[in-house]
Amino acid sequence: MALPFKPRYCCDTPRARTSAILAYTLRRTLILIVSLFVAAVVLFVLLRLLPGDPANALLGVGATPQQIEAARAQVGSDQPLHVQFGTFIGNLARLDLGTSFVSRASVLEEIGNRMSVTLPLTALGFLIAITLAVPLGMLSAIRADRWYGAAISVISQLGIAIPVFWVGILLVTLFAINLRWLPSGGFPLRGWSNFGEAAIGMVLPALTIGLVMGASLLRYVRAATLDVLGSDYLRTARALGAGFTEALVRHGLRNGAVPVISILGIELATTFLGAVVIERVFSLPGLGSMLLLAIQQRDYPNVQGVLFVSTLLVLIIGFAADLAQRLIDPRLRGRTRVEA
Amino acid sequence: MSDVAASPNRRRGIVSLTLMAGIMLVGLHIAIGLLTLVWLPYEPNAFTGGRLEGASLAHWVGTDRLGRDLFTQLMIGSRIALTVGLGAVAIGATIGVSIGILAAFASRWLDDALAATLDILIAFPTLLIAMLVVAASDTASLGSAIVALGIALSAIVARLTRILAKRVLVMDYITAARTSGSSWPKIVAIHVLPNIWPTLSVNFALQFGLAVIAEASLSYLGLGAPPPNASWGRMLQEAQGTVYTAPLGAIAPGIALVSLAIGVNLLADGLRARIDAARTLS
Question: What are the entry keywords (chain A) (predicted)?
Fold first, then answer.
């Protein structure tokens, strides 16, 4: 079909396409940096709003005024706020997260150790979620008139209503306590160097994350597929002789992926942050348990470090999702923010 | 926002069913929550039976590791969950709607700045912030959890309000109202709020469910209110250690929690379908 005009979005030639994506990447990087700065400001304000002086965490009961002074000088809380803020931002920019009040260990190093549990856990859970959600979500949309299509969408309702830690408890009860197939939790002290034990320890937690995230992701895959199935372009492709699968793969997949990718970004971030709770269920020594412990011990450098690094990761995930959307859909490239 | 619901004509038949199921589930929890104000089967902190008893006529879902009645605690849990949900949504709605409306009316520059800030705040780890706020207020109380969750929700509400209000503001009747001399507050009260309210209220129902689950997570992590205001999350945490001897204690609070969350979601779905149907008709 010849159109009276040539549809022109922004990038007709490969070169224009590259430069449009480059321009977007630059703009988005700038936004990422500004976001990170705002996040740092929020973090600073939040930590200063906490009652009590951070120096108190260093002191025992009945400290003398001299000891308090010394502790305040060591922590830097005797400085005026703007000086504290300058030091804070300066340190963050150099990724100097300080040392823990309690263990005196480098915060960054500790975070690195903890990440070796949290990152694989998140990645594995996310992988399970996608593997379940994408085929099942498409199936439930294509076969909405069959009983299993309806059944899948009912299950997906559970996804946003079920607390992830309860699923964890149930899975432990079933697989660890009743069937005794898998350990109920814990992680080898030597970490991944004891690969077999570490990997087995990851199975139940990752499955928990995967099931819950998969169920909530499924709804979006289903909605996107329904959108594609009702679209004019799919009907046109079919009318021009494309088979159902061919039309769906060639025209539907790319269109349907755009909204799903932005949800994927959010879900990945949620998964990562939800690890706090999951690690507690399975007593895993990850980033979440580090934060929980740090909050209980008032270990401010650790609290600050974990919050900063997790915010950084969440922002980077958002960045990647936005970029992926632009790579897939040229119509979005000129736009910084996609609304509604 | 992409509409997650299936096409309206497919769903029209079960609209009332969805809404009805939602109303019944939420209504049940409200009824139980109100009942706890005047009557409870047992004193919540009294040791009324043996430790970790199973279900019996005297203790419908058994007792906890100190011999306290679990059904009594479940009932109180309904009240706590409803209080948290209502409180958090009320705070989130008040702050969020105000900021959203302000952004929609603001100059382009301020609007852009607000929108960008909201995007960042939404990216912020809600649960982590709530953990921090609750831990910081020395005595972990229900109030601090509600405030923390309410503030976390407000950014989401503000973003939605802003988008919805901007859609209304480009309408012809707004221009007409402005040219006939209506003040901004009047336009907000007469034209904007009534128009965005249906969509907002559906979102509030969803946020309510999220707040209830988030509070349960906080309690599970040990950052919730202390007994006797124990929430379902705390019950689950306590029961996890004894799940082998008393599985009911780790199952019942979860079912209560999920039934309320599903009830609220069904309510939201039903309301949305109704609003969509009403829009198509008019």
Answer: Cell membrane, Membrane, Transmembrane, Transmembrane helix, Transport
